[in-house]
């Protein structure tokens, strides 16, 4: 476990026993992001579906090869550091050009989860896959560290957790001499820009003949060799 600045933040690898805490972070943090409501507009009507598939997704990340899930914990009265509950998470893909399948979307059966707009999910998935292939995988192949998810519980936001998790990835990428890549919603763009990420492109998620759409920034933290 690594101590970060500020001193009250602790960062560690997520463990299998953290899966419920990870699902809770996503459940309460992601509704602030327009990408979440776009894909799961009926999450309030079917909270059990939204939570159940979110938990399944986080379990898939924890079990996947080439994926590192890091968490930030905050001190709790009477608890040793190893028992602190995660308050923020980052999902990092260290083999991002490999075609992985995570349990975010049920296979075929549209009755499997009732919280989702499946046309929006399909548009989001195809657009982000194309963006990653065009701007990241075709350029860097596996020589990149990709930030897939960054989320913090609302009551712990603006306390440095997201910054700490990003800096962990930046330092790891420097050690491996690779860039950090990510796709940002408007919600995270200011944070990433402040840390030195640069804009490469903007892509739009939109179902044909619909007015509703999403704007996603393609960003990277380039690796620059020191001579």
Automatic annotation (TrEMBL):
Gene Ontology MF annotations: acyltransferase activity, transferring groups other than amino-acyl groups
Family annotation (CDD domains): NAT_SF
Name this protein carries in UniProt: Acyl-N-acyltransferase
Keywords for this protein: Acyltransferase, Transferase
InterPro entries (UniProt xref): Acyl_CoA_acyltransferase (IPR016181), GNAT_dom (IPR000182), Trichothecene_AcTrans (IPR052523)
SUPFAM superfamilies, sorted: Acyl-CoA N-acyltransferases (Nat)
PANTHER family on file: GNAT FAMILY ACETYLTRANSFERASE (PTHR42791), N-ACETYLTRANSFERASE DOMAIN-CONTAINING PROTEIN (PTHR42791:SF2)
Pfam family, one: Acetyltransf_7
Superkingdom classification of source: Eukaryota
Domain (N-acetyltransferase) ranges: 9-224
């Amino acid at each position: 476990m690594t101590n970060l600045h500020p001193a009250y933040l602790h960062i560690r690898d997520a463990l299998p026993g953290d899966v419920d805490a990870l699902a809770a972070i996503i459940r309460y943090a992601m509704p602030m992001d327009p990408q979440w409501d776009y894909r799961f507009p009926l999450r309030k009507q079917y909270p059990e579906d939204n939570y159940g598939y979110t938990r399944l997704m986080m379990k898939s990340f924890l079990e996947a090869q080439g994926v590192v899930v890091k968490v930030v914990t905050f001190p709790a009265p009477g608890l040793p550091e190893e028992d602190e509950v995660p308050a923020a998470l980052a999902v990092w893909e260290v083999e991002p050009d490999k075609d992985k399948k995570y349990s975010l979307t049920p296979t075929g059966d549209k009755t499997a989860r009732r919280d989702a707009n499946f046309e929006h999910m399909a548009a989001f998935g195809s657009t982000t896959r194309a963006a990653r292939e065009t701007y990241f995988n075709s350029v860097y192949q596996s020589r990149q560290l990709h930030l897939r998810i960054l989320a913090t519980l609302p009551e712990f936001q603006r306390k440095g957790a997201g910054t700490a998790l990003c800096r962990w990835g930046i330092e790891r990428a420097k050690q491996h001499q690779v860039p950090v890549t990510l796709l940002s919603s408007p919600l995270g763009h200011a944070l990433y820009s402040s840390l030195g990420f640069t804009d490469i492109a903007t892509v739009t998620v939109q179902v044909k003949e619909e007015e509703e759409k999403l704007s996603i920034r393609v960003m990277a933290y380039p690796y620059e060799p020191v001579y």
